[in-house]
Structure formats: C-alpha cells, structure tokens
C-alpha cells in the first residue's frame, strides 16, 4: 500500500466516523430549518416587513431575528408555538407535529451554549 493510499483511507475513515456521529442531530436541525422557513420565517425573518422581528426590535430584544438568538430554550419555543403570544398565532399539531416542533427547537438552539439547551 502506498503512503498516499494509506492516508486516503485514514481520511475516509475519519470522514465516515464524524458523519456517523453527527448525522442524527444534523438532519434534525436541517429538518427544523425547513419547517421554520415555512411557518416562522414569514414573521421572524430578517427585514422590516416581518411582524415578529419588528415586535422583538421594538422591545429592544437583540438580536431581533430568532435564528440569531442563542438564549432561547426548547421549552420556551414550544410554549410560544403551542400557545401563541399577542398576535403570534397558535400552531396545532396538524400544522406542526411534535416531531417538527422538536426539530424547530433543535434548529433555533443549535448555537446555544450547553447550559441553555434544557
Ligand atoms: C403571524 C406572525 C408570526 C408567526 C407566523 C410566528 N410568530 Fe413568533 N412571534 C410573533 C410576534 C409578533 C411575536 C412577539 C410577541 C411580542 O412579544 O410582542 C412572536 C414571538 C415569538 C417568540 C418569543 C421570543 C421572545 O424571546 O420573546 C418565539 C420563541 C417565537 N415567536 C417563535 C416562533 C416560531 C418557532 C414560529 C414558527 C413555528 C413563529 N414564532 C411563528 C409573530 C409570529
């Protein structure tokens, strides 16, 4: 076996190993991003035409865009989504399933520090 072939196999093994470890979380976060784009982005995306983002900005919450926050907890996100707040609507399980909501929570807390993920 040549050196370069040996190195290639080591690199391949590392890539596969990493992927196997990261895959479940990664796909849940990706799914969360997808569901978020559909249901939340219209109000919480960046820009001045987004009522959720505007409400956050008016309260001085920074950053106003939900996707940039690192202080949201899954429990709080799920509470807001199932119960609504002011004119943010309630989302039923027929619209956003529990699994999809778990995915949204995983997506929105992806950059949190470990202590804030409970
Ligand atoms: C029709 C517009 C609208 C949609 C759609 C919407 N929201 Fe909201 N959301 C709001 C508004 C407005 C507020 C701010 C309410 C207030 O405090 O004044 C808010 C607040 C929140 C908050 C509270 C943030 C904080 O720290 O106070 C969270 C979390 C949230 N929304 C998550 C979501 C998620 C997740 C979705 C998608 C499932 C979603 N929202 C869809 C309008 C919307």
Descriptive terms for the model:
59% helix, 0% strand, 118 residues, binds heme C, mainly alpha, Cytochrome Bc1 Complex, Chain D, domain 2
Structural overview:
The chain is an all-alpha fold and 118 residues long. The protein has one domain: Orthogonal Bundle (Cytochrome Bc1 Complex, Chain D, domain 2), CATH 1.10.760. The protein is 59% helix and 0% strand. It is built from 5 helices and no strands. The longest helix has 37 residues. The protein is elongated. The mean pLDDT is 86. It binds heme C. The site of heme C has 22 residues, from helix 2, helix 3 and helix 4.
Question: Which helices and strands appear, and what pairs or packs with what?
Answer:
Blueprint: H1 3-39, H2 41-44, H3 51-58, H4 74-83, H5 98-108
Helix pairs in contact: 1-5, 4-5
Bound molecules: heme C (HEC).
What profile does the largest beta sheet have?
Answer: none
Contiguous uncertain segments of 5+ residues: none
Distance between the termini: 49 Å
H and E string: HHHHH
Strand percentage: under 5%
Short account of what is shown:
This protein has 118 residues and is mostly helical.
């Amino acid at each position: 076996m040549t050196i370069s072939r040996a190195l290639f196999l080591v690199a391949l093994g590392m890539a596969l190993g990493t992927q196997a470890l990261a895959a479940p979380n990664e796909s849940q976060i990706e799914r969360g991003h997808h569901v978020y784009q559909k249901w939340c982005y219209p109000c919480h995306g960046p820009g001045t035409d987004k009522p959720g983002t505007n409400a956050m900005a008016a309260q001085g919450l920074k950053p106003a865009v939900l996707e940039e926050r690192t202080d949201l907890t899954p429990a709080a996100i799920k509470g807001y989504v199932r119960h609504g707040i002011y004119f943010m609507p309630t989302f039923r399980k027929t619209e956003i399933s529990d699994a999809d909501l778990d995915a949204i929570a995983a997506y929105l807390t992806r950059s949190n520090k470990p202590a804030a993920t409970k």
